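FW: tagging you since you asked about this chain on Friday. Here's the raw sequence from the shared folder, copied in full. Didn't touch anything.
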Amino acid sequence: MLNTNRISINAIGKIKKSWITEGINQYKKRMPKLSIYEFKDFKFSNLRNLYPNNIIISLTEEGKSFNSNDFSSLLLNYKNKKISFFVGDADGLSNDIKDNSDLLLSLSPMTFPHELARLILIEQIYRAASISQNSPYHRS
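HL: got it, structure written out here
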């Protein structure tokens, strides 16, 4: 079973669209231990020093795509390690962050606004947890 209390989402900027905030809040109610952090920007000199034992997954359009079942398996395979997702703003993530990531993840070959990408990521984390629990939320 996927434990969402070991997952964090680190994102640049605050959500400005109320309907996206409402969507995120709905999933946060279902996963209250999921951590979401918003930063003005990421000016980390060394990501590995700040997150030494975490699996770092960065969202980027050139990343690898997964279907929902494979994404759930991926997260389960990290066992008890902490997983930190990084989501950029409209300009994306710096090469420094991408270079220090364990995985570059693409949500789709399509481009989404960064706020919407955050909502999609949270929904997919919830779906992955549901798949791991054989919940009817995900129907193959």
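FW: Helices lie at 18-30, 47-50, 68-77, 95-99, 114-132.
HL: agreed, and The chain is about 35% helix and 20% strand.
FW: great, closing this out.
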